[in-house]
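Changelog note: in this version the structure field was regenerated for every chain. One regenerated record is shown below for reference.
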Amino acid sequence: MNKNDRYFGVIPKGASRYSWLTLLNTWLTWALNGVVFAMVYLIGAPVIEEFNLSPAIWGWVIFGYLGIRVIVDIPLNMLSDRLGSGWKRKYLWFPIMIQYSIIGTLIAFPSISDSLWSFIILLLAVSLGTSASESIGVTATAEWWAKEERGFAVGLHHTGYPIGALVGGFFASFILNHFGPESWRLVYFSALATLPFAIWYWYLSSSKNAEEVYKNIDKRNLTRPVVLETGHKHSWSDFVSVLKIREVVITAVCLFLFQAVYNMFLVTYSQYLIYVKNFAYSEGALLTVVSAITGAFFQFVVPSISDRIGRKWIIVGIAVWQAAILSLLPIASSFFTIALVQLLFGFSLFSAFSTLLATAADTAPNNKTGAVMGFAFAMTWLGAASGSLLSGYVLELFGGFHSATAYHIIFYIMVALCIFAGVLRMFGRETIPRKYDANKNETITSTYETASTFKVEG
């Protein structure tokens, strides 16, 4: 008898304590990474003014910050698979996290980050660390839970980002308000907080603890995650093979579109509030992360619900909701209406990513989870980099940082991208484990339509 029982229909019953402890660890690590990763958006205005950046150059700075993730996500995940899946992922994850914590802190010292180029180089190191934390962290999280509980685990793990971003918003607001905009570098001392949790994961992630998790999964008659005792040696042909799977491609493109939307928001909204709506620097930083309040809750609940009812039409609904809410950005002007729109935005913002990442994990054939997740994250951050660059050029072409028209054009582009993502997802299959067998679709057969053949399916 399958024992996929849930408290309140959401929280799994009877899971191993090590499933919960590893989830707590990766959640805390990702939350702390979220604090640091989101800082560059929250302190955008003082950075722009200190280095005298044009909108286009600001767009290129963020493009570089995010673009490195496009380059490293696929090889990092392939290397992670090669070193070993499951508990062995710590062998790559741990040293990268140590590097990120130390180098991220160096930005706090003006003597080290006093030039634009030194600041950018240090930002690239921060981006490398957060890239490993998210892409490898999501894969590792999924491998400590039964397949039937994957949506819950990935969804709860990813609530770390909005909560971290929210904490980062309060922290940045405090620094800018009490020490002045010129002291923006102080926010990067927060990078040190990751160190103890990286060390904890090293000891927590062991073969003994992993085996207890898998025995617990067997006892509850659920499906073990695919974990190999020895690493899988990927070739680039392995990576290319996953591109033949339609659901992998559709999921990755949807991630691209949703992340482009989010980064267009992050790169511009704080500046919009400061330069067009005349809010203080601290208020602009704080109002940009209000969506995290509702975002964290729905990011956890929605993927858990998708474990039971399916992920496809949830993503379509998220796209429609997000497009409707983003169309309200140009008319929200008071502190109250801006906060209200942000809270409504949070209903769909982060749940889109966690549900799509659970979908990506669903579609991964045996031994190729890292390749699929690497591709998914590469497309995610390609969307982020592209959206940031596009925003910079739209601002440049339509009047600069002080032009309301330029920001409104960006907001409506965001609406269009959401609609496109919703329509695209309609052309893929449902992927929850009881309805989709990833291994049967690893290669093209007569019963499977390839990535180049698209039609709407239930």
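Spot check on this record: The two ends are 28 Å apart (CA to CA). Residues 18-215+227-441 form a domain with the Growth Hormone; Chain: A; fold (CATH 1.20.1250.20).
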